[in-house]
Amino acid sequence: MTGGLVKVTKDLVAASATPMVLGILAEADSYGYAIIRRIHELSGGELDWTEGLLYPLLHRLERLGYVESSWQSVAGERRRKYYSITESGLAELAEQRRQWETVVDALKEIWRGHGDSRPMTAMPFGGPA
Questions:
Q1: Which residues are CB-contacts of 77 (< 8 A; sequence separation ≥ 6)?
Q2: N or C end of the chain, less CB within 10 A?
Q3: Taking Cα atoms as reference points, which of 2, 49, 44 lies closest to residue 18?
């Protein structure tokens, strides 16, 4: 990281949301606010998810059968809806991981030799003029 916060585009956040949530739930059952905190922590503060992003995703994953939810009470705290990954969700996570590894490997290959110190710039199809 360069030290400053990087604005991750909505497209990239949307594309990575499912494997991120499934991966977090594969670690342990969790509830909404804790998932948001974990994403913030894992990204070094560079991903700042909102409830408006997370809860529709959790509901979609539940409809697809990748997660299940249940209300749980912890002594001294209010009831929370906890989410857990299902066997089907674990299989989907494995597939998502395979796909993301392919994309990351391709990007690394493309960026090889560009060095971390140079900013990435787009070039016309013909290369430098």
A1: none
A2: C
A3: 49
Residue with tokens 């059968």: 65
The pTM for the full model equals: 0.81
The residues near 35 (Cβ < 8 Å, ≥ 6 apart) are 21, 24, 25, 54, 58, 83
How big is the chain, counted in residues? 129
End-to-end CA distance of the chain: 31
* Collapsed DSSP state (helix, strand, coil) of residue 6: coil
Fill in the amino acid letter for 98: R
Residue 126: phi and psi, rounded to 5, are -80, -5
Of 63, 64, 81, the residue nearest 72 (C-alpha): 81
Mark the ranges of the chain whose per-residue pLDDT is less than 70.
1-6, 115-129
